[in-house]
């Protein structure tokens, strides 16, 4: 991981966490000023704890046990009174807890797995987002499985028009199932990658975004890039001799990220070096068992003309091919406005 970006982000996390704690502290002080009763209950809690500690220091084992039981009961009673006070003031139960952005790592950037500490997925994804400034490229909040709208897909099959016995609706529902199962099996080596093919406006980028949204929520790192930008970036990183740290980081991400989405394959200008790089990306990710989604307007036949056998055999052998068809939703949406 790029150390400069990591350090920068870690500072942001430390500040964010500190801010959440200070705000919780400020809410507590505000409450103490506004509700003297709350202060009294807190003092009572302290007094009970001190009294009990004294008894426990002096007494026999039986005394200690009784003291401990008493302490628990008394503290629970006070907690109930505090809870009742919060309810009567219309305050939520967690009013005094710090509001962390990430509940998994409480904004530390680290999580514990057994006795091992590792980076929280929220942190890893932020590094990806920073290195690619890709936040606005996929509209994860607008295009996901919750906003998926089947109303855009006709339920009328038209073999002549779509070269399929299925209706666009039936087809997209099947692809959606494939997509959901894909995210559920992201780390399964038997799970194939996905190739989305279809005309403009049939929902390929939307489906990729929905998968990305779901994968990010499950803690996977995701990188989205259109084929032309991806190829330019790869070639640039090579030309710079990988000396530029950010470019090197960007380059490595393409091979390391859990899910790589290459959109609009076939729109990049063609050159031999780009073919080589495309093959390298597809092949290395297959070997590393990292999942990839490729979208294209080209048909399989077009792809076979444009790319060589080594790319094609990998696409056909290791990718589930999903053909999108139906009316151009972009046009449908325009007409509806
Ligand atoms: N399942 C869906 N639910 C709601 N809106 C959708 C859905 N699928 C696509 N859309 C909308 O339709 C429009 C076109 O979809 P999208 O961009 O995914 O098409 P595309 O197949 O990627 O087209 P292109 O090949 O031109 O890139 C977008 O505005 C998108 O938000
Ligand atoms: Mg698209
Ligand atoms: Zn986190």
Please explain how this structure is put together.
The chain is built from 13 helices and seven strands. α10 (272-288) links the parallel β5 (259-265) and β6 (291-296). A five-stranded parallel β-sheet has the order 4-5-6-3-7, sandwiched between helices. The protein folds into two domains: 3-88, no CATH class; 120-336, P-loop containing nucleotide triphosphate hydrolases (Rossmann fold), CATH 3.40.50. It has helices at 3-34, 36-58, 61-88, 121-132, 159-162, 168-184, 204-217, 227-239, 245-256, 272-288, 300-306, 309-318, 329-336, and strands at residues 110-113, 116-119, 193-198, 222-226, 259-265, 291-296, 319-324. The model has no long low-confidence stretch (mean pLDDT 90). The protein binds adenosine-5'-triphosphate (ATP), magnesium ion and zinc ion (ZN). Magnesium ion is lined by residues 204-205, 263, 295.
Q: What secondary-structure arrangement, pairings included, does this model have?
A:
Layout: H1 3-34, H2 36-58, H3 61-88, E1 110-113, E2 116-119, H4 121-132, H5 159-162, H6 168-184, E3 193-198, H7 204-217, E4 222-226, H8 227-239, H9 245-256, E5 259-265, H10 272-288, E6 291-296, H11 300-306, H12 309-318, E7 319-324, H13 329-336
Parallel strand pairs: 3-6, 3-7, 4-5, 5-6
Antiparallel strand pairs: 1-2
Helix pairs in contact: 1-2, 2-3, 6-7, 8-9, 8-10, 10-12
This protein binds adenosine-5'-triphosphate (ATP), magnesium ion and zinc ion.
Zinc ion (ZN) binds next to loops.
């Amino acid at each position: 991981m790029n150390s400069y970006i990591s350090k920068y982000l870690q500072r942001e996390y430390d500040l964010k966490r500190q801010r959440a704690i200070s705000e919780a502290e400020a809410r507590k002080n505000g409450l103490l000023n506004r509700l003297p009763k709350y202060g009294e209950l807190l003092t009572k809690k302290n007094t009970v704890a001190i009294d009990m500690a004294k008894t426990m220091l002096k007494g026999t084992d039986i005394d200690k046990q009784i003291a401990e039981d008493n302490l628990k009961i008394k503290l629970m009673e006070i907690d109930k009174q505090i809870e009742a006070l919060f309810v009567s003031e219309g305050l939520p139960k967690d009013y005094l807890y710090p509001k962390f952005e990430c509940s998994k790592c409480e904004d530390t950037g680290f999580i514990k797995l057994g006795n091992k500490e590792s980076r929280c997925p929220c942190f890893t994804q932020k590094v990806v987002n920073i290195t690619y400034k890709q936040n606005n490229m996929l509209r994860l909040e607008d295009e996901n499985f919750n906003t998926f709208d089947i109303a855009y897909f006709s339920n009328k099959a038209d073999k002549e028009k779509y070269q399929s016995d299925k209706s666009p609706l039936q087809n997209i529902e099947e692809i959606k199932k494939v997509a959901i199962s894909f995210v559920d099996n992201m780390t399964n080596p038997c799970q194939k990658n996905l190739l989305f093919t279809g005309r403009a406006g049939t929902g390929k980028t939307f489906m990729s975004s929905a998968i990305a949204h779901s994968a990010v929520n499950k803690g996977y790192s995701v990188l989205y890039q259109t084929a032309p930008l991806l190829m330019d970036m790869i070639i640039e990183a090579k030309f710079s001799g990988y000396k530029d740290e950010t470019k090197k980081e960007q380059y490595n991400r393409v091979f390391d990220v859990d899910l790589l989405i290459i959109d609009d394959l076939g729109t990049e200008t063609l050159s031999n070096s780009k073919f080589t790089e495309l093959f390298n990306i597809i092949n290395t990710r297959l070997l590393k068992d990292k999942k990839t989604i490729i979208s294209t307007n080209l048909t399989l036949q077009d792809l076979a003309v444009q790319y060589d056998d080594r790319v094609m055999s990998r696409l056909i052998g290791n990718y589930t091919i999903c053909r999108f068809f139906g009316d151009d939703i972009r046009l449908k949406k325009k007409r509806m406005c």
